[in-house]
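Researcher: We're reviewing a set of sequences before deciding which ones to prioritize for further study. For each one, I'd like a predicted 3D structure that I can look through quickly. This is Ribosomal RNA-processing protein. If possible, include the structure in C-alpha cell form so it fits the rest of the review sheet.
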Amino acid sequence: MSAEDKDLDLIDFEFKLQKIRTQITSKLENQKHLALILSAVEENISDQNSNGQKSPVAYFVSFLSLLEQSINVQTDEILDPALAASSAYFLDLTLPFIPKSLLKSKFPEILTKLAPAITNTEAEAPLIRSAIGALETLLIAQDLNSWNNSSLNINPKRGLGGLLEYSLDPRPKVRKRAQEAVHKILANPPPGPAREHVGSGLASDLSIKTIVELLSNKPNQKTNKEHSAKLIHTLQLISAITSANTWPASKIETLCDLLLEISKTNDQYLVSAAFGGFEGLFNSMTNEIDNDKFTKVLNIIFDLKPSVNDSHLAAAWIAVVAKGVTAYSKIEPLEAIKKIPNVLKILQPFFASEISDIYISASQCVISIITEGIPDKFLLLPTNDNGITGEIYEEVDEVITELSEIITDLLAVKYTNATKEILEVVVSIFAKLRSRSNPDFLKPLEIIGEWRTNEDFEFKNEAESVIGTAITELGPEVVLNVLPLNLLDANKSGRAWLLPLLRDNVRFARLGFFKQEFLPLIETFSSKIESLDKNSVHSKIFQTIIDQTWSLLPHFADLPNDLTKSFNDEFAQNLAQLLYTKVELRVNICHALRLLVESNVAFANGALVDDEFLSQQFSIKEAQSNVEYLSSKSSNLLAVLFNVFSQTAPESRNFVLETIDTYLSISTPEDLQNTFNKVSVLLKDALDNEAKEQANNNKQQQNQKGVSKLSATMMDLVVAMAKYVPESSYNALFTIFNQTVSSEDPLLQKRAYRIISKLIETPTGQNALVKFIESIEKVIIESTQSVHLSARASRLSAISTILTILPSNDLYFIPAILSEIILSTKDQNEKTRELSYNILIEMGKLMHKGGVVQNSKIPGFGDDVPDAEANLTEYFTMVSAGLAGSAAHMISATITAVSCLIFEFKDVVETELLVEISSTVELFLTSNNREIAKSTIGFVKVAAISLPEELVKPNLKNLLEHLLRWSHEHTGHFKSKVKHIVERLIRRFGFETIEENFPEEDKKLLTNIRKTKARAKRRAAEEGEEDDEEGTNNGKSKFSNAYDEVLYDSEDDSGDDEPTNNNNNNRKGKGNQYIMEANEEPLDLLDRQALSHISSSKPTKKGGRKINASEFEKDGRLHFSDKNSANDEDPLKSITSGINAYVEAVKSGPVKGQKNKFKFKRGAKANDDDGEDDGNDDELAKPKRQERSKIGGKGGRIGKPKQKLKARKKL
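Model: Here's the predicted structure for Ribosomal RNA-processing protein, in C-alpha cell form for your review sheet.
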C-alpha cells in the first residue's frame, strides 16, 4: 500500500471515530455507550503513549482486550453483554485499517478471543453481527498457506465453517450478515494459481448437503412451512456463493439437478428461489464449463416452462431464460445465436398472455437476448482480419431470416395485448442488426408502417420509434422504398408524417438521394404555390412540406457516404444561390455546410473508431479524403459566406459565423492568407470611407435597425480568422489590433479586444501572443483612458487572457492596470464584475508565485523607483492603496476587492497582514457614506465567516460596536444585513460570547434574535409532531386525502356511459379491448390492418349529439322536449358548464384551515360565493376579509420583485 493510500485510510478511520465521538450526548443508550467506551479507550491510549499518537493498531489492541474482559475465556460465558457488543462493534470498525501482515501472524490469537462471541449460544444478534464482520475482515487478510494449513486446530476454514452455519440461521439480520460475509470472502480469494477460492469447496459441499437432507426428509403438514423456509435460506446461500463467481465447476451439474428438483415442487416461493439460484449460477459460469452440460441445463429449463398466465412463476422463469441464453452466448456465441430462434418460439406464447407483467417480462427477455446474446462481431462482413468466415456469415443470415418470420407472426391480432411491447422488441432488433436486417425485416416494417398510416392506431409513438430506428440503420432510401411518401399521388395514402421522422433519424445517408428524391419534390410544390393564393390553406400546407423537406438537408449532410460525388460544383453553386435569394433557407443550408465538415473531421479524428460495423462501410481514410476535398472548395464557399454574413442582420447571423469558422479550420495556409488580406483591404477601405463621412458630417443611416457598419462586419471576420491565420499574417493582424483598440467606435473597440481572446484558443495563436506580449501590454496600458463602457467586458476578457501567459519579468503590468480592475468590481454589467473578480484572483496567484515587479515601468512612476519583490503581501499593499483614495466610489470598490481577495487567499496570507487589513477596513464602518459602509459590511461578513476564530474573537467588541452603528438604518437593507452578520457570529462563537461583547444599548437586537430563533425552533418541533401524526398513513394513494383525489385525479370522461365494474376477480393486468369500426362496416380480422383498428381505450364518436334511450317514445318515435319545461325539470339548471360544476363542488366541500386540517364551511361562510350573491345579481358582493391579491402581498399590495444577487456580492 502506498503512503498516499495509508493517509487516506487514516483519514477515513478518523472520520468514523469522530462520528461516534459526537454521539456522547445522544439520547439513545447504545450510541452513548459506544461514545463513552471510545472516550475511555482514547484516554487510556494517551496515557500509555507519551507522543499522543493514536494508531489503528493501538485501538485494535484495546478493543480486543475489552472483548476478552467481557467474556470468561474458560467457560466462554459472556459476562458483560453490552461491553462485549460494543467491543465487537469497534473491532469490526477497526480491523479493515490494520496491516494484513499483523492479521496473518496473529490469526490464531485473534480468532481464539473472537470465537466465543460467535459460538456462544446465548450471544445476542448485535454481538454476533459485529463479530461476523470482524471475522470477515480477518479471513480476507489470510494468505493461501493459512487456508491450506490443516494441521492447526484453529485455521481459516473453521472460521468460514462458522459463517456458513450462521448463513442458515433463522434470525434474518444475522443470516443476511453471514451470507454477505461469505460472499465477500469468496469474492476475494488469496493470491494463488487457482481462480476459485480455497473455501469454495467447503461452502458448496455444505450447501449441497443441506439441500439433499432437506429434500430427503418429507415434511408433514405441521413442519412444511419450516421446511420450506430452510430450503429458501439454503438457496439464498447458494446465490451468495454463485454471485461471487466461485462455485466449483465440478459441482455445477449436481447443483443444477438439485435446483431442477426443487423447481418441480408445487411451492411457488421455492420455485422462484430456485430460479434465483439458476440466475446466480449463470452469472458465474465461464468457458470452463462443458458446452453439452450448459445446453442440457438450458433444455431442462425450457422444459420447465410454466403456464402463460402463471403470474408468479412465469416472470421468474423468463428471467432465468434471459440470463441463461446471455451467459451461454459468452461461452459459445455462435451456438447461442443459432438457439435464439428456438428460444423466441418458446417465449412467443407468453406475448398472448392476458397478464401485463408476463408479456412485459417476455418482451424484456427477448430484448436482452437480442442485444446481449448476439455479439457485434458476428454481424460484420467476412474479412481475413475479424475471424468471420463466409460460412459464419451465412449461418447468422439464416438466424436473422428465422427471427423475421417469428416477429412477423407476433404482429398478428392474436398478440394485440402486447402490441406496444412487440414494437419495442422490433426497435431493439433494428438497432442491433442494423443493415443486416435488410431485406428480412422489410415485411414487418411494411406492416408497422401501414399501422402508423392509420390515424386511429393507438401506439403511434412506438410505431414511429420502429420506423425511425429503421431509417437510422437501413437508410432513408430503403425505408422510403417500402413506405413511400406518396405526396404527389392522390390515389394513395400520403405519409407526410415521415418527414419529421426522416429529419430526426437520418445519418450516414447518401447525399445524392436527397438531390434525386427531395429536390424535385421541393420544385413541384414550389410551382404549385405560385399558382395559389398565398393565404390559402393549400398554400400553407405546401409551404410546410417544403420547409420540412429542407430541414432534412443538414441530416443528409451528416457524414454522407457519397460526398465527393454528390457535393459537386453545380450543387454547391445552387446552395450558394439559395443563400443569396432565400433568407429563410440560410439556417438549414449553413447547418448542412457546417455538418459536412464537422462530421468528417470528427470521424477522421477517430470519434467513432469503436464502431466496427460503421468502419466497414466508411473508413477513416475516406473521411480524410472528404476533408481534403472540402478544403479545396473552402475558398469559394467562404467568399459566399462572407457576403451572406454582411447581408444578414447582426442579431441573426451567428449561425453564419459558426459556418465560416468551420471552413476556416480546414482551409490551407495559402487560402487563409489570401482571404485575410482581402478582408484587411475591405476593412481599411471601410474605415477610410466612414472617417470621410464623419469628417464631412454626412452621417448616413448606417446604424439602421438590422444593418451593421461595414467596418464592424469586417472586424467580425477578422476576429473569426484570428486564430487560424498563418504566422506570416500576424504583423497585419496586430496592426489592425493597434489601430482599432483605441477607436472612438465602441463596436470596433469591442471586436479589437476579442482578437486577443480568440488567439489564445490555438497553440499557434498562443505562441503569437507570447511573441508580441510586450507590445500588447503597452497598448493595453495606454488605452486605459479610451475604453468605452460597452467594450469593458471584452477588454477584461483580453486582460484575463494576457495574464495566463504573462512572463514573470512583466509583473509591472499588474499594478499598471490594477486600479481599473478594482473599479470594474462596481460595474453595472454582471459579466464585467465577474471578470474583474477573476482577474483579481489571477493576479494574486501570479504575485504569489514570485518574481520581480519593475516599478519604473509603471506609467507615472519615475525611473529611479526601486523594484519590488512579488508576493501576496506586496499585492495586498497595492490593492489597499485604493483605501486612501479621495472618491467614495474608489474606496468602496477597493473594500469589495479586498473582501474577494481575503476570502480567496486567507489560508496563505500572513496572520499579521490579515489583522492589519481587517482592522483598517473595519474603521470605514464609522464612515457616513452609505456606499462605503455597504461595502464594509460585506467585508465584515466575509471576515466573520472565513477568517480564523483566533483573529476575529479578540476584536469582537470593537467590531460589534462599529457594526451596530448601522443596525438602526432601514434604507438599503442595512439593518437586515447587520442582523444576519450577528446571527452568523452567534452560530460561530456562541450566544454567551457575543452577549459579553455586545453593546448595552443594542441588547434589544440580541434579544430579538434569541426570541426569533426560539420561536422558529418551537414551530419546527410542532410541525414535526404533526408530520409524524399525518405520516402514519401508509396508503398508496398519491393524494393526501380522498377529497383531493376526487378533485384532482385524472378521469376518463368517456367512462361515464359504462357501468362500474366492482368485480375484484379480474386477472392482474387484464384490460378491455375495443374494435374501432369505420362506416359501420365490420372488422375483417384476417386483414393485415386489423390490429391497427383495435384499441385498449374506448373510442368516442366525433361530432354529433348522443341520443339517449329516454328520448324515444314507446312506438319508437323521437320525442322533442319543450325547452322551457326541460329547464324547469333540470335539477342542474344553475350549473352552466363543467367548470361551474367543479366550482360548485369546491365551494360546498371542505377547506383547509390552520395546520392544513380540513373543516366544512358553516353558516354564512357556506353560502359565501366569492363575493357574489346567488339570490340577487344587483346587490354588490361583500369583499372577503384577509383576501390577497394574486400579484401582490398582504392587503393586496403589489409585492416587490426578488432582487438578483450581484456577482461575488455574497462570498
